[in-house]
Amino acid sequence: MRAKKITPIVDLSGDTSEAFCTGQNDPALVSRLQNQISEKGFVYVRPSSATFASIEELRRYSLSFFLQPTRLKRKVSLRPGAYRGWTPSGVETADGRRQPDIKEILSFGNGGKNEAGWYAKNRFPEGLPEIERSVGECLENLSRTMDDISEVLASAFPEPFGHASDLFREPLDILNINYYQPSKGPSSPTMNVGSHKDFGFMTLISPMPGGSSGLQLSIAGRWRNVNLPAGTLLLVFGELAEAWTQSIIHAPVHRVNGFGASLDRVSLVYFRSPNPAQVIPTSRRSRTVGEFLLDRLRSVRADRRPRLDANVRN
Ligand SMILES: [Fe+2]
Question: Domains (ranges, CATH) in the chain?
Fold first, then answer.
């Protein structure tokens, strides 16, 4: 039946016309959500209109940063020991290929008591004051959105989301703003981000709107373009969620294939994981979230060897 193929939308907008929202307890809907996340590992999310507007605003401001000369962007370069700042194209390789990903990244995060390592102080580009305010608003909105998503998911996955306030106490939230340059010609590479699973717990993605973001999900062995309904974001689960739930939750493989896109593209990607000091309950040898993430981070950032593990909060 066609209806079963429609991707569920977790609705946080206050518009109750969509089924999956806080407080819903219809067993048939709960079962649809369970199946979708166990089999495909992604759902759509309709955030509040204010959250959606703040994302679009930050996308615009960020483009003005990325279009600056490299010497200006270097002033906020990401440095080993702190996951904050600008990463030039060619540093990451999501699938371990020799050909690196063709994307620039500007990384921010929510601060903490220990302003080092995963929780380092944000670094804002000079001369673009609107970015600082916009990032602050977006971080706040996206953090709240993740809290609300966890509440909705508790009906379908009492483990682990029934304890979301413990699971995500002082969570590790990172906002990456990705920039993909227009293609340099028909013979230039098009793979902006190679195929991979995210390595955190869950990720909210706002790809460039307009149907040409290049974001693709692997579903049943076939690449599918992501075409989000208007006003929605994509939520995907990552390897940490798979490990945490012993694969009850699925982490989907995805990639960004520019297909020689002729326009600048900016996507916002918000990662949420438990606090780096938390121990993964299902891990055979005692392993913290921070150790898990650092291990995976090293695999995609071979040249930087970031040392963040000594700096997590307890
Ligand atoms: Fe990803």
Answer: 9-66+133-300 (2.60.120.330)
CA of 165 to the centre of ligand 1 (A): 25
Quote the ligand 1 centre to 78 CA distance (angstroms): 19
Read off the pTM: 0.91
Question: What does the pLDDT look like over 148-159, one tens digit per residue?
Answer: 999 999 989 999
Question: ∠75-61-132 over CA atoms, to 5°?
Answer: 60
Beta strands in 146-264, from DSSP E residues, in sequence order: 172-180, 191-196, 202-206, 215-219, 222-225, 233-237, 254-257
* pLDDT tens column, 107-122: 999 876 566 678 888 9
CA 197 to ligand 1 centroid distance, Å: 6
41-65 burial: b if 16+ Cβ within 10 Å, else e? bbbbbbbbeebbebbeebbebbeeb
pLDDT in tens, 36-49: 999 999 999 999 99
